[in-house]
Amino acid sequence: MADHSTLNAVAAGIDPAKSRLGEGPSGRKPKPLLSRRNIVLYGLLFVAAAYYLLPLYVMVVTSLKGMPEIRMGNIFSPPMEITFEPWVKAWAQACTGLNCDGLSRGFWNSVRILVPSVLVSIVIASVSGYALANWRFKGAELFFSILVIGAFIPYQVMIYPIVILLREIGLYGSLSGLVIVHTIFGMPILTLLFRNYFASLPEELFKAARIDGAGFWQIYVRIMLPMSLPIFVVAMILQVTGIWNDFLFGVVFTRPDTYPMTVQLNNIVNSVQGVKEYNVNMAATILTGAVPLIVYFISGRLFVRGIAAGAVKG
Predict the structure, then answer these.
(1) What is the number of domains present in the chain?
(2) Averaged in consecutive runs of 10 residues, what is the pLDDT profile of the chain (314 residues)?
(3) Which of 42, 136, 166, 212 is the right S-S partner for 177, CB 3.0 to 4.6 Å?
(4) Closest alpha carbon to 133 in 82, 83, 185, 206
(5) DSSP state, residue 174
(6) Residues 75 and 126 in one domain
(7) What is the pTM for the complete model shown?
(8) Range of the domain at 214
């Protein structure tokens, strides 16, 4: 029922809404923009952002300068005359050992390593995680325990046995052998991510599909996959970042003509012959790190969604 003040206002011909204007605003009092809490919070965020962005800024401006300007010593000043010659040299002319064709060859080697490694490892890990989460089979707990242990074994422990294994099957020094290595080492952590994500989905969907007669692959393709875009993006970003930035496996399991981009970058930066060209080194570093940065910036929102939606749930 309306209160007495409202009834009296109606009886007097006064709009009840207007009669409440004199009562003052309702609800929470707005917080001041420059409160102590906001100043501390945004101050810390600004410092953290500057900490990560300042090195990138130095790399970009250095890569756009000529060597005479770099020798002046002010690394923070913007270029007085912008030049893209260091970028051209880093991509197509810098020497990476005996070859002087820049990073272009290493870039395409990295692409040929990255694409099959990411696709195969994600497909196998998603199916394995789905089976571990929804289908109870004999030995599932043992298999899961092996995966947990495998996810935390240091890579260095396995290098020598894998070298012998790849040599025996004739794949040592080839891109195919490195693809196999990245696929195998990526599967444990990816399987754990997919298993935890699928376990966080409503179990009623799986049971209803089973009652309707759907089988293993039908449930996976028609129910699980459409709901799993965020976790697939998480897995893709983790694999792209890990494989593209890898140096250890690239230098151990390949040869100079099949070196990935990171190994060639190391050869350019650590070259001891001739003049040290810092602008070329900076341009080569940015070119090498561009792919993971682009992938993350494009799909970063889905990455956060995937983590929040169950990627770290058990």
Answers:
(1) 2
(2) 50 51 58 77 92 91 90 86 91 81 90 94 91 79 78 83 91 91 90 87 85 86 86 89 91 89 88 77 92 83 64 46
(3) 166
(4) 206
(5) S
(6) no
(7) 0.78
(8) 110-260+291-311
